[in-house]
Structures are given as structure tokens and as C-alpha cells.
Amino acid sequence: MIRNYLTIALRNIVRHKLYSFINIAGLTVGLTCAIFIILFVRDQLSYDRWIPGTENLEFHFNDPFDYSVTWDQSGKETLKAWGGSLTWSEQLAHSEFRSISAYRTHEYDSLFDTDFSPNQWINDGSPEEFEQVSQEFRLTSNPDSKLGWIVGLYYYHGNSLDLNFITFQQDILGFLGAPPGTPDLKSQAHGRQSGCAGSTVLTRLRRPLHSRTR
User: Which domain range does residue 192 map to?
Assistant: First the structure.
């Protein structure tokens, strides 16, 4: 009887090769996944079972967002900025002249623990000094004139000094083979940037004519 069943199954496999392959492949994948899951669970349940007294162990799962970071250098960041502007206007016969002078400067400083660890390895900072001057001259037509126009001249000058640095501290220097007592090694860049811009603007606006009603 069993031989008859095996003969029928073999004939069906040969006759329907595609469906037979799909069924056998699906059964193989399912059994393989089940075996791997059983082995994984068995390995997890047998963790530290060779240690005497493991039946008294308790597992506690902490909040993944409840953590703290320890470093040897507290980060800081400061910005000091001030500026001012002066506006002067003069009414002429058929136009208005306006002058706008402005000045702005700021000093930025920062210091961070690059390695984010309690070890004295590396810290870095990016101090910056910046100042800018701008001047604008503008001549505009009177509001009651039939033809509206604006003529302007604008000038801008900015100057920036970047003093980025990185410091190699005692622990990393000792790891690299430096003798004990070697002072911190600081590498600093001096990058100066300067830019100027000027423009002239000429704009004409023709007011729409309004029809008069009698």
C-alpha cells in the first residue's frame, strides 16, 4: 500500500514539475526557518546557564532613551554681536535724497569634546571674527510727481577671520607614543575671507491714468 502511494506521488511529481518544485521549495524553506528559530531560542534560553546559581538571575530591560554621556570637556558656545545704522534724508525740489550707513560685527567662540568620552583625547573649536560695512545712496522722485523713479548706489564690504582649531590631548598622545608630560598638541587654521559688492539700481514706474468722471 505504501509502495502504491509512493508510486503515485512520484508520477505526480514528474507530471507536474513546476507545482512540485514550488511545494518542495516552500516546505524546505519553512522547515529551515523553523529549525533556525528553535536553535536561536534555545541559545538565548541557555545564556550563562553554565554558571552556578543562574536560576536566581533576573533580566531588566531599561528605557533606551534613558542614558547619559560622560566627557572630559564641557561644550560651550558664545556669540557677541552688535551693530548700528545711520539714516540721513534731504528733501530736494523734485526728489528726495537718502543715505543709509550701517556697521555690524560679531565674535563667535565654541569648544566641544570631539570624541564624546571621558578620556582626554581630542577637542575642537571654531572661533570667528566678522565685521561688515555697507553704504547706500538713494534718490527717489516725489510721491506727487507724474513719473516715479528711483536711482540708487549700494556698497558692501565684509571681512571674516576663521580660527578653527583641533587639540590632541594627553591620552591620545600617549597612545601615539609621545613621552609622558608632553603638552597638548594644538593645530589651528587662520582663514581670512573678504568680499565687496556694489550695485546701481535704476527703476522707473509709470503711474496708471485714472479716468475722470464728470
Answer: 76-206
